[in-house]
Design goal:
It comes from Trichoderma ghanense. By secondary structure, this protein is an alpha/beta fold. It is 27% helix and 15% strand. It has a domain of 254 residues: Aldolase class I (TIM Barrel, Alpha-Beta Barrel).
């Protein structure tokens, strides 16, 4: 059985532009309302971030009409050019979005890739953090991606760091976990691997048979039964050339401790205002990116609920915990995610919009009844 992921309180940030820098992570670690902190997804060599192309924007999900048209769409909206940002370090090491307690819950759309900082930078950051003596140390989830061979190399680096930290407590005061992001919709010519059972099988095969660090994978939103069937089949080894011969043999899912569901919904478009009948995309190039925030919430809830039922129905999958992510910004959203089977609840868009105080606000909403 793989090691259990420990998160208490069961609330955390997820990989996002607002968990990129040392400043971001320090602020998150200081919040007593989080039980874990997730780094922005990193590659071995860092992602070639281009601030002119990789940007994000917030929008009001209640304003979905397209200028000059009577039509509405769940993946189009109007906004202003001034509301787009490239993310750190180009904008700043902190979020300059105005933050007040009366902010309207906003959705987000992004054309971002991964962190411009390499994995080694995050390991260096983690080694510099100290845990308050007055509280239990938070788990730090290191989010990584790359090819299967790069994932294997990344695991080796993290494992070596973990074991050197264990022998030298001053090196890291925090438990570690690994999240493998197989779900970004914004990488050209590279569809999210978790949509392809054969690609997913290749990644699962690259993971160690036994790890003392909890490992999970972050998946994209699934929208029909066939995608859930394919995902479960990959977890059970049905798409692997070396599929287990019997139900008692170890399956690929035995390498995993958790699933993060879900990432952003791709193929979404945000249109800027225009006096003509053809408004331009707000974000660069074609403007197609990943949507998150309140409009994603019902789909994310459905994904968590379906996966929890599927996992509980098979003893080979029942050990898998689910971090529920998508559109949560208050106590009611937190409770909904927990009610459908999320072991813990992750937040990204609301963190970008409201800052770290969003976690304190959620704890207050639920009266600390985790």
């Amino acid at each position: 059985m793989p090691p259990k992921l420990r998160i208490h309180p069961p609330l955390l940030n997820t990989a996002s532009p607002w968990s990129t820098s040392h400043t971001h992570l320090t602020s998150l670690l200081r919040s007593p309302s989080l039980g874990a902190v997730t780094t922005r997804t990193s590659l071995l060599a860092g992602f070639p971030h281009d601030p002119s192309r990789h940007r994000y924007a917030f929008f009001d999900p209640a304003a979905l009409s397209v200028p000059g048209s009577n039509n509405t769409s769940s993946t189009t909206a109007t906004a202003t050019k001034s509301s787009t940002f490239s993310g750190p370090p180009e904008d700043s090491l902190t979020n300059n979005i105005p933050q007040t307690s009366t902010l309207t819950p906003l959705a987000s759309l992004n054309t971002l890739g991964y962190s411009p900082l390499p994995l080694s930078a995050y390991l260096s950051m983690i080694s510099s953090f100290t845990s308050p003596a007055s509280s239990s140390p938070k788990t730090i989830i290191i989010s990584i991606t790359g090819s299967p061979s790069e994932i294997s190399s990344s695991y080796g680096l993290i494992s070596s760091f973990f074991h050197s930290s264990s022998s030298s407590p001053s090196s890291s005061a925090f438990p570690l976990a690994i999240e493998i992001n197989l779900s970004c919709p914004n990488i050209p010519n590279l569809p999210p691997p978790a949509y392809s059972p054969s690609s997913l099988a290749t990644y699962l095969a690259a993971l160690p048979i036994a790890s003392d660090i909890p490992i999970g994978i972050k998946i994209p939103p699934y929208t029909h039964a066939g995608q859930f069937d394919d995902f479960v089949s990959a977890l059970l080894g049905s798409h692997s050339p070396s599929a287990p011969a019997s139900s008692s043999a170890p399956v690929p899912a035995s390498k995993l401790s958790f699933i993060t569901a879900t990432n952003t919904l791709g193929s979404s478009l945000l249109l800027g205002p225009s006096s003509s009948s053809s408004p331009e995309p707000l974000l660069p190039d074609a403007g197609i990116g990943g949507m998150a925030g309140p409009p994603l919430h019902p789909l994310a809830l459905g994904n968590v609920a379906i996966l929890r039922r599927r996992f509980d129905a098979d003893p080979r999958l029942a050990h898998l915990d689910i971090i529920g992510v998508g559109g949560v910004y208050d106590g009611q959203g937190y409770k909904r995610m927990r009610s459908v089977g999320a072991m813990a609840v992750g937040i990204a868009t609301a963190l970008g919009r409201q800052g770290v105080d969003v976690f304190t606000s959620i704890e207050k909403d639920i009266n600390s009844a985790w």
